[in-house]
From TrEMBL:
The enzyme's E.C. designation: 2.2.1.6
Segments forming domain Zinc-ribbon: 607-629
Protein's name in the database: Acetolactate synthase
Thiamine pyrophosphate enzyme central domain span: 225-360
Gene Ontology annotations for the cellular component aspect, listed alphabetically: acetolactate synthase complex
Molecular functions per Gene Ontology: acetolactate synthase activity; flavin adenine dinucleotide binding; magnesium ion binding; thiamine pyrophosphate binding
Cofactor, free-text remark: Binds 1 thiamine pyrophosphate per subunit.
Cofactor(s), names only, from the UniProt record: thiamine diphosphate; Mg(2+)
Residues spanning the signal sequence: none
Length: 629
């Protein structure tokens, strides 16, 4: 986990250019609450996810007065944690800043898990909390909690609004901080009397603030970019390792162009899923603890690792000192604190990922630098052989539905949906088998937050009401935030939730089986599991149960065709484990659960049908032209 990216207390500066006409704005008498809401609207806020309470009631009262004409819609969640996850899901789906509200004390502390989730995954979010009146701060007043202090390690920046005259400036600064540099959540704590107090309100327009001491580096150093091009040109076994930073930067086209220019295979982190077309022949899927075998073999054997917007997380690297140990490293990231934190790169480049890649590609085009036809061919042949020898396996058990079957069928019928997940085995199976487009994969990675899936799906669906939004959950995770079914029902949010129900905390059970002598302590969820069909009906939405393989295809089609929220309980194989798996303390090549390989017994050479070259019988691809043998 990175150190908190705190910045100096922001200050505004007024710079007047010669011969410019200053616009005179007539102040209007308004409350602090109105100033907050008007400032949010000026920053393009469409939705606020929140829950009212005593200290934040003045803001909600102003919201009541302006909601019909302001263009802002408030969505009432059933728990503040749902508000923070919904704002997070909205931000991930749109690339915009998500906004959530909570009151003081327990309302604010209920937001903490969602704030930490957004912080770990670098998601832009504005969190507004009510606070007791200024005179009561520090007196242990009713529902007083120092949310400013509590959240210091898990926000990019924080404010306590002491004067309503500062409200517009603070909101403008908060949006600027949350959405620039490495994105992250910003907290605005508003004492009750500040929200009530009237003053002469002058709006502050988006982009007009200037923060002393806050200058994120967005352009890469030209010398370092040239050094990176040199390494790429010399490499024979390069690999692109791409994370969530590339998605935050919107660098989808640049990643594809770089990969194709030099024929570089691409693997992604859990956060990076969707940055690269996973149907592309250069795509290797996710790497790491439950990554594809061919991605993990590739990162172990590559001679150049190009890290783009990723942070060498422990779930990716396995045993760190053996991660890409044969490779030189280029690390591109906007946060200088991440460059060299876990792995010292040969070429560090600090800057916005999209800007850096654009400059790199421009220089390559200018100099005519590109991959030669045979530069990486042997490497690609090897990678493709691993792909053939160690594919992801979909089990077909005679008496039960495998969870992988469910994921594959859903992905087949809804290939372009937004997918949210909770955390556990189902999350890893979804990461392995779904083929997601840009920003259509929404999952808690760094914090691993159970209960994230349904409220995050609410946020994505609010943002894109005409798009299919599907939550993949587990029977344990689903129960963490199931009360948000009430929110789905109230607003008619057409979210489809699929529960892979194996009666366990699945990943916990798998670890207990593998590493704790099959002592299944407190991981069985069967007793007390609600009847999902009746539970959904109690909330006024459609519930379904799938028990047999023969029902799966038609039931998924029925779910997708239904005009409204649906919860589907799929009874899957109880003891299915998620493989491949890199055990703790092992390197990425030391995976368990790989499919057994049949030895190749032929000794006759194989001749390529394309170029006629003679190949060893163990080759799957021609060593000369790359044609499949």
């Amino acid at each position: 986990m990175r150190s908190p990216s705190r910045i100096s207390p922001p200050q505004t500066e007024n710079h007047t250019q010669p011969n410019t006409i200053k616009t005179v704005v007539t102040p209007q008498r308004a409350s602090g609450g109105f100033a907050l809401l008007d400032s949010l609207q000026r920053h393009g806020v469409e939705y606020i996810f929140g829950y009212p309470g005593g200290a934040i009631l003045p803001i909600y009262d102003d919201l009541y007065k302006v909601e019909a004409t302001s263009g802002i819609k408030h969505i009432l969640v059933r728990h503040e944690q749902g508000a923070s996850h919904a704002a997070d899901g909205y931000a991930r789906a749109t690339g915009k800043v998500g906004v959530c509200f909570g009151t003081s004390g327990p309302g604010a502390t209920n937001l903490v898990t969602g704030i930490a989730t957004a912080y770990m995954d670098s998601i832009p979010m504005i969190v507004v909390t009510g606070q007791v009146p200024r005179a009561s701060i520090g007196t242990d007043a009713f529902q007083e909690t120092d949310i400013y202090g509590i959240t210091l390690p898990i926000v990019k920046h924080s404010y306590v609004v002491r004067d309503p005259k500062d409200m517009a400036r603070i909101v403008a600064e908060a949006f600027h901080i949350a959405s620039t540099g490495r994105p992250g959540p910003v907290l605005i704590d508003v004492p009750k009397d500040v929200a009530l107090e009237e003053f002469d309100y002058v709006p502050v327009e988006p982009g007009s603030v200037k923060l002393r001491g806050y200058r994120p580096t967005v352009k890469g150093n030209p010398r370092q970019i040239n050094a990176a091009i040199q390494l790429i040109s010399e490499s024979r076994r390069p690999l692109l390792y791409v994370g969530g930073g590339a998605i935050a930067a919107g660098a989808h086209e640049e990643v594809k162009e770089l990969a194709e220019l030099f024929n570089i295979p691409v693997t992604t982190t859990l956060m990076g899923i969707g940055i690269f077309d996973e149907h592309h022949p250069l795509a290797l899927g996710m790497l790491g603890m439950h990554g594809t075998a061919y991605a993990n073999f590739a990162v172990t054997d590559c001679d150049l690792l190009i890290c783009v917007g990723a942070r060498f997380d422990d779930r990716v690297t396995g045993k760190l000192d053996e991660f890409a140990s044969k490779a030189k490293v280029i690390h591109i990231d906007i946060d200088p604190a991440e460059v060299g934190k876990n792995r010292v790169p040969d070429v560090p480049i600090v800057g916005d990922v999209r800007n850096v890649l654009s400059d790199l590609l421009r220089r390559c085009k200018h100099t005519g630098t590109k991959g030669t036809p045979n530069q990486n061919q042997e490497w690609l042949n090897l990678v493709n052989r691993w792909r053939e020898d160690y594919p992801l396996v979909v089990p077909h058990n005679p008496d039960s539905i495998s969870p992988q079957e469910v994921i594959v069928e859903v992905g087949r019928q809804a290939p372009d949906a937004f997918y949210t997940t909770d955390v556990g085995q189902h999350q890893m199976w979804a990461a392995q088998f779904l083929k997601n487009g840009p920003r259509r994969w929404i999952s808690s990675a760094g914090l691993g937050t159970m209960g994230f899936g349904v409220p995050a799906a609410m946020g994505a669906k609010a943002a894109f009401p005409d798009e299919e939004v599907i939550c993949i959950s587990g029977d344990a995770s689903f129960q963490m935030c199931l009360q948000e079914l009430g929110t789905l029902a109230q607003y008619g949010l057409n979210v489809k939730t699929i529960i892979l129900n194996n009666g366990w905390q699945g990943m916990v059970r798998q670890w207990q089986q593998a590493f704790y002598g099959e002592r299944y302590s407190c991981s069985n969820m069967e007793v007390g599991m609600p009847d999902v069909e009746y539970l959904a009906k109690a909330y006024g939405i459609k519930g379904m149960v799938i028990r047999k393989r023969e029902e799966l295809q038609d039931a998924i089609a029925e779910m997708l065709a239904y005009d409204g929220p649906v919860v589907v309980d799929v009874r899957v194989t109880r003891d299915e484990n998620c493989y491949p798996m890199v055990a703790p303390g092992k390197n990425n090549a030391q995976m368990i659960g790989l499919p057994k390989q049949s030895p190749k017994t032929s000794t006759e050479p194989v001749y390529c049908s394309n170029c006629g070259s003679k190949n060893l019988p163990t080759h799957n691809f021609c060593s000369e032209c790359g044609t499949k043998l």
